[in-house]
Amino acid sequence: MLDSPEKLNLFIKHITTTTNITEDQCLEFKTNDIGTDNIGKYISGLANAAALRRKSHAYLVFGIKDESKEILGTTFNPLTKKEKNLEYSFYLLQRLNTNHVFTFHLVEYEGKNIVILEIAKAETQPIKYNHIAYIRIGSTVRNLDDFPSHESDLWAIIRSVKFESNIALENKKLDEIIALLDIDMYYELLQRPMPVNPDFLINELCNQEIIKKNTYGTLDITNLGAITLAKELDTFPNLTRKGIRLTKYQGLNKNSTGKNFEGNKGYAIAFKGLLKYIHLQLPNIENLSDLREVQTIYPSLAIRELIANALVHQDLNMTGSNPTVEIFDDRIEITNPGKPIIEIDEFLKAISRSRNEKLGNIMRKLRICEERGTGMVKTIQALEEMHLPAPKISLRNDHTVCTLYAYKKFEDMSEEEKIQATYTHCILQHLSSSYMTNSSLKMRFGLEDINKNSVAISKLIRKSIDEGKVKLYDPKAAGTKNTKYVPIWA
Description:
By secondary structure, the protein is an alpha+beta fold. Helices cover 36% and strands 21% of the residues.
């Protein structure tokens, strides 16, 4: 990435003095402005070509003659140019199908003005300009649709590369990486001292795929390293709108906003502070077993695990949408971008499949979330111990929403809430090699008067059976005092 005057000058020197560098699919020379639509087509074509060639960036350079590499200079100035009264880059961006990253650099070289258009590779889909995808073929930009084998290869590459493995910033030295990433906190979370030897430190960070060595002898920061350890996420163009957003509302809806907080640090280094801030926004209850202990109305473990899940299981390729935590008087809604990659019911069966395997691994290694498949079980157990309603997992506009509800008396719960709590209790018992019974369900709801509530619980179990949530473990034992039940899928 050309993010300093020194790098821009070195880049120009490299492309003008290296004899074997000519125009190719990822590099184009122009002397002057070629028209807005043509530049838009080049952004699409070069971005797609860079992905196809497995390059991080492609470049369109103005002010250098193609074959001779003669430095002519250019009168083209995209920083002052307007298109239909709009800032030039914004006009182009509006006509691309994603918030694609491209940057115009202006540099004076040997007394002449040079413009470098730096274009990031296509990552989540082929880049289109005005609804058409282009590709650089030979010395021309052509419609991608006309080259089905290239389009097929491009999609195969895009689908094979995980977001975590892509490069967030490239060509950095170790001291620059330490300035951008909180390496000290990383080793503190590991409960280990940071290596003193620079080579050993680099090798360790490479082994964890936080950084990568490149062919230029410098280091690249991966998206994985940045999203977990960034001191400031907005330093990394790929990670805008990836910080977690927290909103505290006054009441039961969004009509009245109280506090709003936008996270801008890597998930691992911000997580502890985020949890502390969330708990400060929640009402407290006294723990009667120890009057010195203060507890929020929700179990800390449940909040911790569900937020960690939202971060780990989000669709990182979705742009323009953060993971969010929204606090209302009667509930907390934790939302992450993307539909789940397993059925919602599988969440409750302790079946785990991570969309972001490397992110999940590093979050578990840093003790931020539970081991695979155990977090939801412990969440349900913590909610039951406080006699809270079961969590609700739902889909909303291609986002996954997990809702925690504050305490409700049994008689104040809706029928749907009672059945869902029955189902999750039955799952918890089954995963503990036990069974749900009338008595265990009364205890789950905090109904201590066994005789008084047996009829209501029996009716609830029958409704849960009718809804296809639970079933008799042994149909022959139906109607006995200790009838046992298991989840419908058991």
